[in-house]
Amino acid sequence: MEFYRNHILVCTGEPCVLKGALEVESILLTELQKQGLENEIRVIRTGCLGPCNVAPVLVVYPEGIYYSGVKPGDVQEIVAEHLVKGRPVTRLVGTDVEKRVDVVYQVPQILTGQERVVLRNCGIINPDEIVEYIGRGGYEALGKALIHLKPEEVIEEVKSSGLRGRGGAAFPTGLKWSFTASGEEKYLICNADEGEPGTFKDRLILEGDPHAVLEGMAIAGYAVGAEHGFIYIRGEYTLSIERVQRAIDQARKLGLLGKNIFDSGFSFDVEIRVGAGAYICGEELALIESIEGKRGEPRYKPPYPGQTGLWGKPTVVNNVETLANVPHIIEQGAEWYKSIGTPGSPGTKVFTLTGNIKNEGLIEVPMGITLREIIYQLGGGIPDGHSFKMAQTGGTAGGCLPPEMLDVPMDYDELAKVGSALGSGALLIMDDRHCIVDLLKCFMRFFNHESCGKCTPCREGTPRLLELIEKIMDGTAVKADLDLMAKLAENMEISSLCGLGQSSPKPVLTLLEYYQHEFLAHIEDKKCPAGVCKKLQVKGVV
Amino acid sequence: MKSLEDLRALKKKAQEKTKLREGQERVKIIVTMGTCGIASGARDVVVALMEELKKRNITDVTLTQTGCIGMCEKEPIVIVEKEGKKTAYGKISPDKAVQIINQHIVNNQVVGEWVIEP
Predict the structure, then answer these.
(1) What does the alpha-carbon distance between residue A533 and residue B89 come to, in Å, rounded to a whole number?
(2) Among A102-106, A342-346, A409-413, A473-477, which stretch is predicted with the lowest mean pLDDT?
(3) Contacts of residue B53 in chain A, CB cutoff 8 Å?
(4) Which pLDDT score is estimated for A540?
(5) Could you tell me the pLDDT band of residue A100, with boundaries at 50, 70 and 90?
(6) pLDDT in tens, B66-83
């Protein structure tokens, strides 16, 4: 076996790639060769490490030193100083690393205080090597399920773990599986059409640990009795598609997908289907239509996919993160899973932090953590001396919370109580420079563009809401327009056909409730307190 | 892949490869590589250590480097960290480095004559 004294992990999640990680990698390889270190030091590509705001990121093991914001020009210094002379380049580390190797594992702030279940391999293994996944205990849960458990027992375990769908709807996963457990031919679909603006967790899970999702799919397939799985990945996620395909090929080669897995008689295989970038195709029935080759539009429910899904057969549709939780539940048991998080929402949740926050990126924390902890501890607070104004939880179709609600626990039930949702786990943080009405316009423009047009409330409701918001920004709205907006939004919520029209009113309703004063300032005083709406006066300026 | 045993055999093999990233090594060898260390031949010592570890297929040892520790006249210095105890060897040549692996790491005997006295 080859012996390497150092492993350098180059994060090749998309944020890092966009900021030049591949160029950094290629210069790194040349520099190592120049110094004659190519046989001593191994360079490995890995999935997202988390601190996306300081991409590109490199980690040097065994010291465990994180280098962030590495530019091509920095590589030579890292090689000459750290790898040749053993002196970490402190200016790229961010925290004070003493120039001694026994001070190890200097990790960025965003990575401390996390509890990693789904992301446990991300940034540690090479996602293109199935053996590295196996080395971390991968596929043991599948083996355990196929050899020692009956399908009913797998469903029972997942049911009692309390795992709920991580795509946004929070439906109990075990219950969903039990609806599909009868009948002959069935399908299992992994929904990786991550369209929610500000959400990129599924992409980074697929890029960083694709086998975890495949293993979860195989276990789910066994539990419900499906032999065919599809993973529907949105077309923009080229790196995810590439890595998942490679993972499927490697799993087939080792017999972990395909016929008679673990000699158990159970066969399961996975195919990739690529989406074309429509937001609506993240809705499970529109997604099924799309796989069938039709236009992506939701179907009427009932019948639910559990009875009549893909090609009329019973079908389970689960989100990427949900499936990536499954192997851990089978391996370590429902009791262990329930010990993390809150009683109503066990486990962890992967959040994507974006907006006016110091440490943008990907985090995994136990359910029930407060918004304040996420923003001020993991997120490092609001940058540039500004103050927190609003957090939107769950993506663009989620509710918006004011500063008074910073202590609300982040779990499904608590957020629902305040009119919001945990949704996909996107967290958009806005500081005091932003105008609430202007933000709402951005949200509604998005929904106006993405509404598929099949049902009237959503097709007609979104443009009308957008018009009303524009009226407010122009200074031509009257107070009664706010009531009209609320009424329209409530109607959409109860009468739209699918999740799009049912949840797009959420930001409207929460903003109207929590920021009424700001809407009134626009309408009655004709002033925009944040000074964003150009057609209105800035408050305090005559 | 027909059984859990097959999987676990592969797992064991794979773990050897990723051990470096987990901080589970049994022994840590540190070579001091400040300018003084490099000038006295620390690079050759590192290469010799690596080759010996490779030859003996030793996988639970990490080899790493650090900067000058302030004893420039004793360079090249090799520090062996084992069971919580640190031993610093001074004036190490590639041949001596190989012997450190043979005696200290494999046979668990500190090579007394090269140890830097505190």
Answers:
(1) 71
(2) A102-106
(3) 3
(4) 53
(5) very low
(6) 777 788 888 899 999 888
Q: Which of B12, B15, B16, B18 is best to mutate for the A interface (most A CBs within 10 A)?
A: B18
Query: A130-338 — its CATH code?
Result: 3.40.50.11540
What are the extents of the domains in chain B? 24-114
Residue A97 reports pLDDT greater than 80: no
The residue extents of the domains of chain A are: 6-107, 130-338, 348-428, 436-538
Residue A500 to residue A482: CA distance in whole angstroms: 22
The pair of structure tokens assigned to B35 is: 């300018």
The predicted-structure confidence for A217-256, as pLDDT tens digits, reads as follows: 999 999 999 999 999 999 989 889 999 999 999 999 999 9
- CATH number belonging to domain A348-428: 3.10.20.600
Average pLDDT over residues A306-326: 95
Mean pLDDT of A152-163: 97
pLDDT, tens digit, for every residue of A358-386? 888 889 999 999 999 999 988 889 999 99
Residues of B in contact with A134 (CB under 8 A): 7, 10-11, 14
Contacts of B18 in chain A (CB under 8 A): 124-125, 132, 135-136
Give the three-state DSSP class for A351. Answer: strand
> SS in 3 state form for A452-471?
CCCCHHHHHHHHHHHHHHHH
pLDDT at A110: 62
The CATH code belonging to domain B24-114 is 3.40.30.10
Closest CA to A168 of A368, A402, A419, A426: A426
- How far apart are alpha carbons A363 and A118 in whole angstroms? 10
**CB < 8 Å to A84, chain B:** 33, 38, 43, 65
Which residues, 6+ apart, have CB-to-CB distance to A424 below 8 Å? A166, A167, A168, A194, A196, A199, A201, A394, A395
pLDDT at A542 over 70: no
Q: Is A62 in contact with B59 (Cβ distance < 8 A)? A: no
Indicate the residue type of B6.
D
Q: By C-alpha distance, which of A43, A19, A15 is closest to A30?
A: A43
Q: Is the pLDDT of residue A101 over 70?
A: no
Q: Do A143 and B64 touch (CB under 8 A)?
A: no
CATH fold, domain A436-538, is: de novo design (two linked rop proteins) (1.20.1440)
Of A180, A176, A194, A296, residue with least CA distance to A240: A194
Q: Give the residue from chain B lying closest to A125, CA to CA.
A: B18
Chain mean position to CA B69: 17
CATH node for A6-107: 3.40.30.10
pLDDT reported for residue A105: 41
